[in-house]
């Protein structure tokens, strides 16, 4: 004799039941609010722009005049670095000489390095010639590296 037990298929849940199930599914694995520590407050006087500027200077220090084995920051080729509230950076820089063979390339290299810094929106580089660069603009570190003491 054939088995006469009927297999029932579940009927579709009502919209309220479906919503309740979705809510249960999404909160079942969610950590409770007490599992999260509150975000620490930044120290008194903390300015996130200072931290970004530190990273901008670090990026500039990756750029070298190919004829001199010292980065352009330590050479004293960067005259000004400013950042506005929109996190746009403006840099005034010079070269060791107006006849420098990388005059067309080095400013773009600096711009690309600065644009690579997280949180920087734009970078503008102005090549300036006043005041003229001289060896006295180099840092002590650069003079040590170049044995100029």
Major β-sheet profile: 3 strands, mixed
**What is the name of the CATH architecture of the domain at 48-144?**
2-Layer Sandwich
* Number of DSSP E strands: 3
Which oligomeric form is depicted? Answer: single chain
CATH superfamily of the domain at 48-144: Fe-S cluster assembly (FSCA)
The rough form would be described as: elongated
Uncertain segments are 5-10
Q: Strand pairing plus helix content: what structural class?
A: alpha+beta
Distance between the first and last residues' Cα: 109 Å
Number of helices: 5
| Widest sheet: strand ordering | 1-2-3
CATH topology of the domain at 48-144: GMP Synthetase, Chain A, domain 3
Mean pLDDT metric: 81
Percent range for helical residues? 25-40%
Rounded Rg: 30 Å
Describe this structure in words.
By secondary structure, the chain is α+β, with helices and mostly antiparallel strands. It has a domain at 48-144: GMP Synthetase, Chain A, domain 3 (2-Layer Sandwich). The chain is built from 5 helices and 3 strands. A 3-stranded mixed beta sheet has the order 1-2-3. β1 and β2 (88-93) form a beta hairpin. The longest helix has 14 residues, at 15-28. It is elongated, with a radius of gyration of 30 Å. Mean pLDDT is 81; it is low at 5-10. Residues 54-124 form the MIP18 family-like domain. This is MIP18 family-like domain-containing protein. Residues 1-48 are annotated as: Disordered. Pfam families: FeS_assembly_P. InterPro entries: Fe-S_Maturation_MIP18 (IPR052339), FSCA_dom_sf (IPR034904), MIP18-like (IPR002744).
